[in-house]
Amino acid sequence: MPENDLSLLIEAAQRAAEIATRFIGGDLGIEHKAADNTPVTRADLAVDRMLRESLSDARPGYGWLSEETPDDHDRLDRDATFIVDPIDGTRAFIEGQKTWAHSLAIARDGAPVAAVVYLPMLDLLYTAAAGAGAHLNGAPIAVSGTQTLDAAEVLATKPTLDSHHWPRGVPPVRRAHRPSLAYRLGLVAEGRFDAMLTLRPAWEWDIAAGSLILSEAGATVTDRRGGPLRFNRPHPQTDGVLGANPGLHAALLDRLT
Question: What is the CATH number of domain 5-140?
Answer without folding.
Answer: 3.30.540.10
